[in-house]
Amino acid sequence: MKHLKLWMFLLAVPLTGIAQELKGTDLIPFDPAVRTGKLKNGLTYYIRKNNKPENKVDLRLVINAGSILEDDDQQGLAHFMEHMCFNGTKRFPKNQLVDYLQSIGVKFGQHLNAYTSFDETAYFLPIPSDDPEKLEKGFQIIEDWAFNTVLTPEEIDKERGVVLEEYRIGLGAENRMRKRFMPKMMYQSHYADRMPIGQKEILENFTYDKIKKFYKDWYRPDLMAVIVVGDIDVDKMEKKVKEHFSSYQNPKNERPRKVYDVPNHKETFVAIETDKEATGSQVQLIYKDYETPKPIVTINDFKESLAEGLFSTMLNNRLEELRNSSNPPFTFGYSYHGQTWARTKEGYQSFAMTSEGKQLEGLKTLVEENNRVRKYGFTQAELDRAKTEWLAIMERAYNEKDKMDSDRFVSEYQSHFLEKEPVLGMEWGFTTMKKLLPEITLVQIDKLVNDYIKNDNRVVVFTGPEKEGVKQPTESEVLTVLNSNGDDIKPYEEGVAATSLLRNEVKPGSISKKETNAKLGTTTLFLSNGAKVTYKKTDFKNDEVLMDAVSFGGSDTYSNEDYKKTSWANSGLPEAGFSGLKLNDINKFMTGKIARVNPYIYDETEGIRGSTTPKDMEYMFQMIHAYFTDLNYDKEAFNSYVQKRKAMFGNMLSRPESYFSNEFYKFINADNPRYVSPFPTESDWDNQDYELAYKKYKERFANAGDFEFFFVGNIDDKAMEDFSAKYIASLPASDKREKAVDLGIRSLRGDHKKIIYRGTEPKSKVLIRYRGDAKYSPKEDLAMQALGEILTIKLVEELRENESGVYGINASGGMSKVPYGSYRFTISFPCGPENAEKLTESALRELKKIIDNGPEAKDLAKYKEGELMDFKKDIKENRMWLSNLKNAYTENEDPENILKYEDKVNALTAKDIQDVAKKYVANDKIIGILMPEKS
Fold first, then answer.
1. Cis peptide preceding 251, ω within 30 of 0
2. Residue 256's CB: how many other CB atoms inside 10 A?
3. Could you tell me if 118 and 223 lie in one domain?
């Protein structure tokens, strides 16, 4: 999506010497903060110093080759090759690579990863940069991936099972419908028959020479880029790149890296696909461009891309207004001009998610809005708002120019290598956009729609559930809607703009007392109405302030009957807006202002969370005040919300995995009088009582004195004190203080097994669950978390690498104090039905080893390295601190414990982990297994 990728320039550091005069034909300068070059063998490299996060470097190997280059007998082998790079290289035989990386804190699947698409393959390797030996090993790894993967028959055959399990995960309704519509979507294109996952028969039976040939043909220097971004010395890294990659040569008589096009077509193709397991109804409308996209090279290209972005912003604002209307034509809708499935083909694309049976209506709305723009254009007010919105986002990115994470830069340089996207410096980009945006006119933008909309080279795809009583539209009906000219369409109406977020006078309160905590760097304000505000000033981000306010009580204070009548309605209450303003009014008023606030009611607590910038912090406080005191009562808005939610959830249980979850949790909550399914039915929505939910909300937020407010970010002390006194201390309050309520309700305990049959594909899922009451212990909580991480390592080794039975598997555990002391532990994985019982036994056997013998020392060390590596990054994130302050309050723990976390992790012993395993997960497990329906 060309105009969306344009935002990547906001991730670069400043340029100096900005030219005062811009000429349309001038070339866009390349950010000099990036050192780039090309070795004699054609390998490209990008190197940049970036200190966030500290002592870490992101290495990435990018191959300009993917599934599109596979021969007919290699379908799926580009992706298979990606797998093999982790299964034995020259320096790291068999599984030693993953084992080594885990030993230095790099988690497989979380930090260490890769992907294969049609046109490229990319490998991600974040490693510590403060240890020369680890850094050298990192370069050895990406060098081995590029040129020294050892494709032994033994390892290839072992990996077949893993890749086939990944193939199995993708089976289902979406896959079946995609196979049917792709020949129309990518008409006569190679992309239609080169899905990266490949063909099952080939994955099962390909001979070893086929994958070796793919590796030899396409893993070569002239198709590669090495990207190095992090807390590093650029000169040393450039030297390492040359040392590790200069000696390799391209193969003789190398195969040309063919670029595949998507042919144009005069026909309009319509695909109407249904499936009994489809969960939702969607509409896709694509007008393909005639020409191959050109890279953004000059100032004129840059300006044109800005215009495209503004066009999409304005049109999507209109679609969002329709989504928020009393009778929304879709659950979600958007349009943009950008890349299709193929790198070589762009188009103007519109999408919508609709209620079942409403796809034609959704398409009609998309076509009407396109025609409205074509007939009347946009208004100047809309353009002004879009420019203001872009400038606000640009300014925020500019303010964060020295606080960007390295992985954001890496993605930008990958796009430059693969698709020639520009690499701009922040100073140049910010200055240039501020200069160019005012020059973009309505005339320039309005003419885009005539380039986008055409009567040929277009495709319409409907996908949705196959259900009795739901009539599918015909191709003729679709074409009639598509070809409507919009003669009866009226111009867009602006409406009256709001002038304030508050309609009632605010009578400020005051600050009664102030305390500071030097260790945590926090300040606590005690307000005149009893509310408390705790905030922490940080320099982690220049333009970020996060907040969360919480009070005990929640929906556990409701009767069983009231709980069931309001459980789903609660989330729809904010749809009414506040202060007499509808959502569309609020959104327009907030154009150019970055502040968001969302109230919530959970079982044990109620609260409000939000985010903003230092500049717009007062708007966040005004929203807090409004949600406490002036939430609108608007049944029409609530009904609109329900309509959209019915569409979203209506067919969710058609998906076998969702049905399994629903039945499993229904089974373990059979005796719970308050149990509510996570997948509400249409009757569930019809039984929600909006009036009651609104009344309960007002009760929950009637006493601000029972709330603790937490703020973390770039905070000005005076602003925090002023806004707290004005907008929070002024909230209604009383002396009443609530606590979390333990209703005494527990889910099923003991040893049980539940087999659930659903689905037509050969897919299973296993869920092993342990849960019970326990006195909360911070030490045991940490040990349970460690048990989950360590068991995951062992399960990957055994069930994935040794048994080749799963693609992904996870174990996790922990303890809670609220509303009662409890422990939890789960193991889950998808697999083939024929292996479900055997793999369940294997998983329990690995757990039993830890129960009997404790974890191996090397696995405990891996856990500690990974946990501490994550912690060192997270401790410099605002969200981590906000979570710590809030959780310490709700769990009645000392927030200073975070300062001792590294010591606690280092002090954790194998015996600690074995003890909690013996105590909590030796018995009383509930096993759920999803099996396909019996034929």
1. no
2. 5
3. yes
- The domain that holds 718 is classified in CATH as 3.30.830.10
Q: How many domains does the structure of the chain reveal?
A: 4
Q: What is the mean pLDDT of residues 867-885?
A: 97
- Whether residue 378 lies inside any domain: the answer is yes
* Enclosing H/E stretch for 161: helix 153-169
Range of the domain at 659: 519-728
Does the residue 297 lie in any domain?
yes
Interaxial angle between packed helices 778-795 and 857-874, expressed in degrees from 0 to 180 and rounded to the nearest 10: 110
Give the count of beta carbons closer than 10 Å to the beta carbon of residue 164: 18
CB-side exposure of 806: number of CA atoms within 13 Å?
26
pLDDT for 605 equals 98
Q: What angle do CA 706, 708, 711 make, to 5 degrees?
A: 155
Instruction: Write down the pTM of the prediction.
Output: 0.95
Helix locations, 483-543, DSSP H? none
Residue 156 lies in a domain: yes
Enter the tokens of residue 914.
């074995």
Instruction: Please tell me whether residues 449 and 527 are part of one structural domain.
Output: no
> Model confidence over 642-689: pLDDT tens digits?
999 999 999 999 999 999 999 999 999 999 999 999 999 999 999 999
Q: Does 851 reside within a domain?
A: yes
Per-position DSSP letters for 167-229, written without gaps between them: HHHT-SHHHHHHHHHHHHHTTT-GGGG--TT--HHHHHH--HHHHHHHHHHHSSGGGEEEEEE
Burial (Cβ within 10 Å: 0-12, 13-18, ≥19) of residue 553: buried
Closest to 417 in 3D by CA, of 307, 343, 309, 341: 343
Based on the fold, state whether residues 364 and 436 are members of the same structural domain: yes
Using DSSP, state whether 685 is helix, strand or coil. helix
Going from the C-alpha of 736 to that of each of 706, 732, 851, 890, the distances in angstroms are 7, 12, 47, 17
